[in-house]
Queue: 3 jobs
Job 1
Amino acid sequence: MSDELSAMIRGAAQGEAAAFDRESPYSTNILAGFATGIRRRRMARGATMSVGGLAVVGLVALGIGQPWQPSPVAQSPTQSPAVTQSPAVTPLPGLHVSVAQLGPSGHAIITIDGVLWITTNAGGTWRKLDVPGTLARGHSVDVRGATIAAATIDSGVLVYRRSEDGGKTWTSQRLAARLDSTEADVALSADGSTVALANQRAHSSNFGGSMVLCVGPVGRDLVARDAPLDGTPVWVGTHLVVAGGLLASELIRSDDQGQTWTQSTVAGVKAPTSGAVAGDTPNIGTPVSSATRAIVPVTIHGGTSASLSLLTTSDGRTFESIGAVPLAGEVGAGVTAIGSTAGPDAYMFADPTSTNLHWLSGSGLTTVPTTGLPGTPEAITFSDATHGLASVPSSSSTVLLFRTSDGGRTWEAAARPSA
């Protein structure tokens, strides 16, 4: 195959892929409606498979597999044949990292070439972080000041590791709970005093399940308890909250560190704990918690349009509406929005159907159009109202990391950490 034809094929595939990601957010987002536990990265892989299909169509359109005949080119006897240069392949923007775990308040941990790096100021500065063992999949590290809590896998056993001096020294606890999967989510309370570590239970389908939740003070061994819902744990003050379930339709709370659970009514709906869930049921995202309150993002379906409703709570029991904004595109059942704190009593949420952001300060809600992001972020974190990080899945096995210094309006590749 000629270099020119190879270049045409690559260009066709890249063009189709860009059109797929840009014009059909529904095709990507609907995958999330099949399982609450599926992360955006897995959805992106599904989109990549579809892009591969488009590339095959492009090959057929170009006549691959059929006898190829060169087109006649009229030339002057004194002229040399024109030489066509293969177009340069533009590299994907963003800093390529193997793993990106974006936490609250500008905290993030990334892996590049097997080395862990941590930032506490949204990528302004980085330092190496040595965590014993292999980090579990999921949001397996959380940071509050000098306190770090992590979940690792050691010889097939889930291990809780904690450090109270910024990672210089570690204390470990091999958890008694059976390892049901290699994915774990770790959540520290706002003051860094209490931790919850969730290990999702394996189940026969991806339509909900339960999990083992290990809870306790940071400086002590954790106690394993059963949680009736699979999802991401979050502390709202001293209350432990988990959002998840079928099509992200449930939110449960515990006031006694996971010993007992109660289902909350969110957005006027209390979803059934068994049986079918309607496709237009509101989808409850992971609450974004600060020292004083938490904001719960809820996707509301309204016929041909959808909106993002933001609710505030101080206990995971009662909720008040702050406001709602329309989403930019179509959204499938079960799709939720992600967010981050962004300074005192300020929050930022990502539109799950576009690259738009939604800024909440007090009770004022503003949409922030962005430039520089190639797709919908799978995670964001802001250290203040100005500086933030966003991770976007790529078509390869890496994640693209971006940084903003103007409140999310413009984004560029995050600086590569160096020793």
Job 2
Amino acid sequence: MKKILLFILLFPIFSFSQLQSDLLEQKIILDTKVELTKSNLMVSVGAIAFGLLPVTDDNINIIGGITIAGIVSTPYNLFRYLVYVNKRSKFYKKNNIPRKKKRGRNK
């Protein structure tokens, strides 16, 4: 009888810890996707900026190709970044996870 009572009392604690680990896993996955898409966006913007450098005759094909790749990939990376940020914000709001505050922003 004592074992059954102990099991009934401790079962919600164990199931809650499993729920917390699932939430933590989802949070880590979303944060990682946001960081990866942000770095991809910065690379594509950097490719466009690299194309604005002065061009000589011998490297015009390379810089032109990099610029075109940056122009094509930047909207795609921006869209992906905004989608993942939106998903992360909804997840944080749904599960009442506090957001890290940036230094220097007063709200």
Job 3
Amino acid sequence: MGKFKKHIRVATSLDEEHDVPVDTPDPTDGLLRLDELIYSKLHEYIETNSRAAHAAWGPFFNVTYQISAILTLHRENICYASSPNRRTIIEYGTFLVRLAEDGDRVVDVMNRGLQRDQRSLDKRIRENSMIDHFPAAAHQALQDTLSEELDPESDERLLRPQNLIPQYDPGLMAYYNVESRHSHVSLTSAQYFTRNNGEVLELAQRPIHSEVVPCQAFCLFVQYQSMLAFNTLLRGNPWTEELASIAATHDLPAVLRKRNPSA
């Protein structure tokens, strides 16, 4: 973290703004257009026999609610506090892209991953004599999961975001790593309220940057990618035309990336 200087000054603000080109379309417009596509009867477009569509429903709405939280913090000018939310939408958004590409096979991998996690949880509960700490129904559900016979899945490692994200977008992994530094204790997060100019250590009660990344533009990118992926799992792909229009206006990719296992 570097040595603290003897001279310390309290700063009222160390904020810096992002430079945004004047000819860049307002991301708010794109976000509003995307939001209008999430109509109340969206569930009617879910195929009853599509396990991938069922598995995508929760993660998709997780993305939309996380983005709502990010934009709320943005309006309050405290974007820095939304690093955990931005990290989460990267994870869920990339997972949706994978579901769009590999379909029901991803659900098999998820089942195998859940069973592995439940086995670890069961071990911890028994080691610490905590069976009586949980409702009987919850413990029975855990045991039912453990008793299922599941085939090994070679792609189970891709349940970890650190393994999955680079195979779809290595550049996005850089954002993920940055957001992780601000989501967990690190030297980066520790220094985010100070600036050392070699002479004086400035201390502030607000972060040195108002935004780690441009919040609205980043939310537009992830929301669009998530909806592009989810659209492939909906009956009749109802959003195709409007998504193409939004992509053209905001210079977004018209098609989903394919996974590159060698990345």
